[in-house]
Design a protein that fits this description.
TIM Barrel, 8 strands, binds cytidine-5'-monophosphate, about 230 residues, alpha/beta, 10 helices
């Protein structure tokens, strides 16, 4: 199924290249994008990204860079040269680090990837934030870091579908919002706590949906993906 600007980003939460290639050969690069995260990238490296790009897939490289500005700038530039579609950094690295990331991505020229930021990890609670010396609520911190990232010129944020509603109210239609925690009607919740269906998440303001197990563990991944895409039409 060829879809202009597919909304589903399939999370490749696997560490073995053979499994990855066998899996992606069952999908169509015209109907989804792929997310390569820290585990897979650490195990398989840039070569895997290159192979997936050669198969026609657009890649979200989910490495969440967070370091001193100069290192992040160089890492972002190095990542952008892999021919990826999108990558991310931690907004909590601060405005200098975010500006450096932006410079790194600009060095890639007109065909640069999208650069988005993570605000507060959804594994963090108000309590765990407090342990790190941050006394405001998760919601306030998400808002603060989103403002910082967007005013520094980043293209958008990773956020929960619940957060997307508030972020759209506060920051308008332009930012790209990428949301995990998605479960199609009738599929298993797994370890996700607050879930939305693909349709609900798009209605809540998401631009793209990160979906892993409902597709990777589906007996027919391509059919599972087609059902999700149909629900978005
Ligand atoms: O299998 P599932 O759909 O739960 O996978 C979701 C993907 O999104 C995983 O790669 C997970 O690490 C990632 N993710 C998440 N929640 C976040 C950020 C990323 O589930 N807040």
């Amino acid at each position: 199924m060829l879809i202009p600007d597919p909304k589903v980003i399939v999370a490749l939460d696997m560490v073995d290249c053979t499994t990855v290639y066998r899996f992606v050969d069952r999908l169509d690069p015209g109907s989804c994008r792929l997310k390569v995260g820290k585990e897979l990238f650490t195990a398989a490296g840039p070569q895997l990204v290159d192979q997936l790009c050669n198969k026609g897939y657009e890649i979200f490289l989910d490495l969440k860079f967070h370091d001193i500005p100069n290192t992040v700038k160089k890492a972002v530039y190095a990542a952008s040269k892999l021919g990826i579609w999108m990558l991310n950094v931690h907004a909590s690295g601060g405005s200098e680090m975010l500006s450096a990331a932006r410079e790194g991505i600009d060095m890639a020229g007109v065909n640069r990837p999208f650069l988005i930021a993570v605000s507060v990890l959804t594994s963090m609670s108000d309590n765990s934030l407090r342990e790190t010396g941050i006394s405001c609520s998760v919601a306030d911190q998400v808002n603060r870091l989103t403002k910082l990232a967007l005013t520094t010129g980043l293209d958008g944020m990773v956020c929960s579908a619940q957060e997307a509603v508030t972020l759209r109210q506060n920051f308008g239609d332009t930012p790209i919002l990428v949301t995990p925690g998605i479960r199609p009607e009738g599929s298993q919740q797994d370890d996700q706590r607050r879930i939305m269906t693909p349709r609900e998440a798009m209605d809540a303001g998401a631009s793209y949906l990160v979906i892993g197990r409902p597709i990777t563990q589906h007996p027919d991944p391509s059919a599972g993906l087609d059902d999700i895409n149909q629900s978005l039409v």
